[in-house]
Amino acid sequence: MKRLISAALAVVSLLSFASAALAAAPIKIGALFAVTGPASFLGEPERNAAQMVVDEINKAGGIKGRKLELVVYDTGGDATKAVQLANKLIKNDHVVAIVGPSTTGDTMAVIPVVEKAHIPMISCSAGIKITEPVKKYVFKTAQNDTLAVARIYEQLKKERKSKVAILTVSDSFGSSGREQLKSQASRYGIEIVADDTYGPKDPDMTAQLTKIRGSKAQALICWGTNPGPAVIARNAQQLGLKLPLYMSHGVSSKKFIDLAGDAAEGIRLPSGKVLVADLLPKTDKQKGSLLAFVKDYQRHFSAAGDHFGGHAWDAVMLLKGAIERGGDTPDGIRNQLEATRGFAGIGGVFSYSPRDHAGLTKDAFVLVEVKKKDWALVK
Amino acid sequence: MKSDKLKFLVFCLVVFALPLPLSTGYLTNVLIFVGINSMLALGLNLLLGYAGQISLGQAAFFGLGAYGSGVLTTQYAFDPWLSMVLVALVVAGFAFAIGFPVLRLKGHYLAMATLGVGVIAHIAFNETVDLTGGPSGLSGIPNLSIGSFSFDSDLKNYYLVWSFALAVILLSLNLVNSRYGRALRAIHDSEVAARVMGVNARLMKVQVFTLSALISAIAGSLYCHVMTFISPTSFGFNISVELLTMVVIGGLGSVYGSILGALLLTLLPELLRTFQDYDIVVYGLLLVCMTIYLPGGMVRGIPALLRRLVPARSGNA
After folding, report:
1. Does A304 contact B at CB distance below 8 Å?
2. What are the residue boundaries of the structural domains of chain A, listed by start?
3. What pTM value is reported for the model?
4. So what's the ipTM on this one?
5. What would the CATH number be for the domain defined by A146-278+365-377?
6. Is B233 an 8 Å CB contact of chain A?
7. Of A166, A195, A339, B223, which alpha carbon lies 20 to 30 A from B204's?
C-alpha cells in the first residue's frame, strides 16, 4: 500500500513539474558585476537595481507570460575571472543575454567571448572603446566620457575660460577621460596648461595642486572616482586654491559630498539626471522613469538610487523591450536591441542603430553644482 | 626512478583525458587557467621550495611576458611564436641582470626587493599608455596558430597550455632529481655549508631565478594569446601573493604540490560560489585551516593526516 501511495505521489509530482515546465520556461539573463573589490561602488548598486527590476517584471507577470531569471556572478573587478564567468554564463547557464560587466577593463576582456558565442551583452561601464568601433553583439548603457567632457567644455566656453588644468586618476576611467579632455580641447578653443595624474590610492594630492596653482589655469578639471576627487577637493581647500573646480560624472553620488564635506561646496560636475530627478522640468522625457527608479530603490534598499544602479536598470529594461518586441533568442534580442529608438531610461534617452551601440547624446548629462551639501542644476 | 616516470605518464594521461567528459562546459576554460597558474607556481616553487629564495615579484615576469607578446603582436605585427621566444629570452636576460644585486639579499630584505620589482612593473604597465593601452588594457591580441590551424577554442587552448605545462613539469622533475637539484636543496638548508662543499651558491641562485622568470614569461605569453585581452589588474601584487599561496598550500619543494595548489586555488572560488556573498569568508577560513592542519602543504599533509586518523579509528573499534 505504502509503495502504491509513494508511486502515485511520484507520478503526481512529476506531472506537476512537467506542466510547470511546459507553461513557461524562464528566460535566463546573465549578469556580471564587480560586487566586491575596488569597483564594488559600481557593482553593488548595479546588482541591486538589476535584481529589483527583474523581480518587478516577474511580479507583473513576466514578459509575454514568461518569467525572467537573473543569474548574477561577481567578477571582483578581475579581468581573468570576468572571462571565466562569462564562459560559465554562456556554456553552463545557457543565458540568452548578459548585463554588465561593471568596469571597462572587465568589459574589454569579455567582448571576445560574447562576440564568439554570439550572445548580446549590455555593458554598464563607460569606456569609449567598448562601442567604438561598433561590435556586433556589444551595447552599453553608461554615458560615454566624450559627452561628459563636452558638457564641461561647453560651460567653460560660455564663461570665456580658455586655460584649464587637468588632474586625472591613473586607472581606466581616468586615462579614458584624459584622452577625451585632450582630444576635444581644441574644438572648444581650450588650452590645457597643466596635465597631471594621481594614483587611485594616493592619500594626498597637495604636490600636484601646488604645481597647478603655479600655472595660468583658469579652471581645474579632475577626472576620477571616489575617494580621490574628495581628497583633491579637501587639499584644494587647504591650499586656498581659488580655481573653479570641475569633477567628472564618476563622483556624481551623495557619497562624494559626504567624503569631501565643506570642501565640496561650489564644485561642479556633469551628471546623469538621476541625481536631480525632482528638479527637472516636467517636460523632460526621462522624469517619469527617474522618479520611479529613485522611489523603488529607496524602498528596497533604503539608499538613494544613483546612476550606477541606473545603468543596470536601463540594461534590463532595454532587454525587456527587445524580448517583448519579438526576440527570445540571442540573435533576435540583438537585432531588436539595435532597433531600440527613443527609450527614456535613467542614463538618458537611448536610440541604438547599426552604427551607434552607445545610443546617447550629450543631453544625457546635466551640469550640477554642490550647494549646501546638495545638488543644484547649473543653468 | 622508475616509479617517477610512471607517475608522470599517468599524470599526462589524466591531463589529456580530463576535458573529454566536459568538453562543452566552462570547466575546460577554468582548467586552462589552472595550467597557466601551474606553470607560474612551479616557477616560483623552484626558487622558493628548492633554493629557498622568496620572490614577491613573480607577477612582474608574468606581466612582462604577457605585455611583451601582446605589444609585439598587436603594435608591431610580429609572429606570435617568434615574439614568445624573443620575449622569454629578454625577460630571462632581465631577470639574470637584476638577479645579481637582488639575490645578495636574504629573508625579509629579499622579499622587499622582489616586491619592489613587482610594483615597478605594475606601474610601468599602467603608465606607458601609448604602448600598453594603460589601465584600459590592450585588446585585439591574436590567438596562436600553426599554419592555418588556429587555437581559437577552449579545448584547443587547453591542450596548447597543458602541453607547455607538462613540458615545464618534466623539466622541473628532471632538474630537482639531478645533481643540480641536490645542490639547490643544499643552498636551501645552509648556504654556508653548500659553499664549503664547493657549490657556487651565488651563481646558482641567479640561475634558478632566471629560470623561474623564463617560465613565468612563457606563461604570460600563453595567457595573452588565450585571453586575447590583457590589463594591468591581472599582473598586480595580489597575483604574486596568490602564487605564493599556491606553492605553500600545495607543498614547498614538491613539483606535483604546485600543480595541486594551482588547481585548488583556481577551482576553489568556483566551488565556493554556492555560498554567495560569504564565499570570500569561507575561502579565507579554508586557507587558515589548511595551513594549520596541513603544515608542509597538501602533498605531505594529506597523507600524514590520513595516517593519524586511520589508526585512531581502528583503536576505537
Report:
1. no
2. 27-144+286-361, 146-278+365-377
3. 0.82
4. 0.79
5. 3.40.50.2300
6. yes
7. B223
